[in-house]
Structure formats: structure tokens, C-alpha cells
Write a sequence for this structure.
């Protein structure tokens, strides 16, 4: 898989040539979950196993509620097992996020 197959808007803040799909797996999966389109998700889910996606998603520090609910259902994992959920509970904000 070539990183250039993904939607360019996923990489607004980084140099796309510096991204290694394996080394940056957690970051890439997080970007696709929060900002990707359906084709980006298909690329991820065809490249990584469901278990790899689950293990990466469990480590993501910050994720939108919508993405968290999706990945929780996709991996059949309780929401409270995800790091982003735990971090959110430890650091409540004044606004819904």
C-alpha cells in the first residue's frame, strides 16, 4: 500500500514522504478514523488485520466520540477499554467533545 493512495487532507500538517505506514500505524489509523473518508477506511481495513486495528485504536490518546463508538462496535470492544475514553474521563472539559 502506498501512502499516496489516502486522501491528501489527512496529511495537512505533515510531510507525506516522511510517513512510514508500519512505524506510524497508530497515528495513521487515528487519522483515518477521525478524518478519513470511506475509501481511506477500506485501505486501512484491507492492509491491517482487525486485531492490528483494534490494538492500535486501544492506544490512541484522542479520538472523536463518533470514531470511538464506530471502532468499539467494529472491534467488539467495550468503550472503557480505549485509552482515549480513559483520558477523557480523567480530564473532563467544560464543553461536550
Amino acid at each position: 500500500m502506498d501512502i499516496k493512495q489516502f486522501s491528501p487532507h489527512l496529511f495537512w500538517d505533515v510531510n507525506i514522504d516522511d510517513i512510514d505506514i508500519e512505524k506510524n500505524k497508530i497515528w495513521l489509523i487515528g487519522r483515518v478514523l477521525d478524518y478519513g473518508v470511506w475509501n481511506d477506511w477500506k485501505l486501512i481495513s484491507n492492509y491491517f488485520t482487525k486485531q492490528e486495528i483494534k490494538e492500535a485504536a486501544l492506544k490512541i490518546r484522542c479520538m472523536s466520540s463518533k470514531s470511538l463508538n464506530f471502532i468499539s462496535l467494529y472491534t467488539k470492544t467495550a468503550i472503557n477499554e480505549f485509552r482515549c475514553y480513559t483520558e477523557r474521563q480523567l480530564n473532563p472539559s467544560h464543553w461536550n467533545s
